Structure formats: structure tokens, C-alpha cells
Amino acid sequence: MEKTYEVEVELDPGAEVEDSKVFAVGAAQIQTLAAADGHTLTDEEVLQGLRAERVAPGSNKCRVSKTIQI
Prior knowledge:
This protein has helices at residues 20-36, 43-47, and strands at 2-10, 51-54, 61-69. By secondary structure, it is of the alpha+beta class. The termini are close together.
């Protein structure tokens, strides 16, 4: 079975979706959500397969998501 966690991260002015801060903040939030569901993800596990995309063109928000096997 799979579960997808999805969070929104606000971009700093001038930052791009690929910015490491977007992934770091999103990964931390996803780890917290997964832990609340009883799933432990290491830093390496949460970063593997992590996806980020703009919510909408020109938006300063990104959607960061991770699908895990449970």
C-alpha cells in the first residue's frame, strides 16, 4: 500500500523550485507528518524520490510531495 504526503513551501524571493531549501523544508515537514502517522523516515529516505513543483505558474509557493510504501 502507498501513502503520499504533500506540503506547501513558500519560496524565498528569487529562489527556484530546485533550491535545496525547498527540499529541506518540505522533507522536514513530511517527516513530521509521517511520524504522526507512525512511520519513521530517515533523512536519506525522505529525500529519495522527493518531488517539488510550483503550485501555479508565477506562484511563490511549491508543492513538495513524497510517496512511501506502508
